[in-house]
Design brief:
single chain, 341 residues, alpha/beta, 2 domains, Cofactor-independent phosphoglycerate mutase
């Protein structure tokens, strides 16, 4: 079996800004793969990683079909978010990280539609953290996907359009919704429950792929934008033993994809202690057991994909372990390399 292991946030991106690099990480397994495998540097946004794994050419069209809006001519995404701004930093968390429920999303969309009271935009909660907006008119504009603006930001992107009225309309709508949400009953209840509130809406167009993945390749993931992507799919398992057992139930396919998110949030928000703890757990539950599975021949090859300025694709085959003449590579090199951003 060939395993593709996707690890968003693997490369710590805050060395230049903070002067801090994660220390004392258990990197023996990944160091061996880096030494004997083939490394292809791949600077990529997180959305590019999603595009390589999704099994459809358009996430928007996929969601439209699920929501019964396949024939709607003008549709885009709206993601509920939490925005934090202080004197020295800005950050964004999307609804998938805020435990937003479907009933909360439905209540918000219903009240937003009543608040706007026009025929130009209509909000539909396709998932609790991923809403669709239908528009009665075509509006040309661009904003990055929500997965590319999560985390700490130097500035907040604004809608880009050749039509100034279109970009101004969206900016005004974002501002109006931010004020509306601040007093919404859902947020009042979340504040009383000491939950993070939803204080903004992020508009974006689509997540499109020119080379969608074969939907028959089994997928194990909790990634919010990959839900219902593969024909055979399950949530990310607790450890490699659980993953291997599930793959055994599927008849040990020739290929499988495992997408793990534990490093994503600490990398996005600059939580170095959280990153170190998450890496330790990732190594114990997955990296070391996968290394043993390769040595036992249960896996024949491995590809690791990650994102960021110094991201890479790493391809490793079991027969490469005998190339003893190859010089060692260390994962710490990639952590230090991020210091040059």
């Amino acid at each position: 079996m060939h395993l593709t292991l996707c690890l968003p946030g693997l490369i710590w991106p805050h060395a230049a800004a903070t002067g801090q690099v994660p220390k004392n990480l258990p990197t023996q397994a990944i160091d061996e793969w880096l030494r004997f495998g083939n490394i292809q540097p791949c600077q990529r946004e997180r959305s590019d990683l999603y595009r390589q794994i999704q099994s459809y050419t358009s996430l928007l069209q996929h969601c439209q079909q699920q929501a019964g809006l396949a024939d709607a001519p003008h549709v885009f995404f709206a993601s509920p978010v939490l925005q934090r701004v202080d004197m020295h930093s800005m950050s964004v968390s999307d609804g998938s990280n805020l435990n937003l429920t479907m009933s909360e999303a439905q209540a918000m969309c219903q009240d937003i539609n009543a608040f706007m009271d026009d025929d130009l935009f209509h909000f539909v909660p396709q998932r609790e953290y991923l809403w669709l907006v239908t528009s009665s008119a075509a509006i040309e504009w661009h904003l990055p996907p929500v997965c590319d603006i999560e985390g700490q930001l130097k500035f907040m992107p604004r809608p880009q359009s050749d039509n100034r009225k279109a970009s101004a309309k969206l900016q005004t709508l974002q501002a109006e919704l931010q004020m509306f949400l601040s007093q919404h009953p859902v947020n009042q209840q979340r504040r009383s429950n000491k939950q993070a509130e939803i204080n903004g809406i992020w508009f974006w167009r689509d997540l499109a792929s020119d080379t969608p993945l074969d939907a028959n390749i089994p997928l194990l993931t909790d990634a919010p934008l990959l839900q219902q992507s593969a024909n055979t799919q399950t949530d990310a398992p607790y450890d490699w033993s659980a993953a291997a057992a599930w793959l055994q139930e599927q008849g040990r396919p020739e290929q499988a994809i495992l997408w793990l998110n534990p490093l994503e949030a600490p990398s996005m928000f600059g939580d170095i202690w959280g990153y170190q703890d998450a890496f330790q757990a990732l190594n114990e539950r997955f990296l070391q057991p996968i290394q043993q599975a390769l040595k036992r021949g249960e896996l024949q090859s491995l590809t690791i994909k990650t994102d960021g300025e110094t991201g890479f694709d790493l391809h490793f085959q079991t027969k490469q372990r005998w190339a003893f003449w190859k010089r060692g590579h260390h994962f710490n090199h990639y952590l230090q390399a991020s210091d040059t951003e």
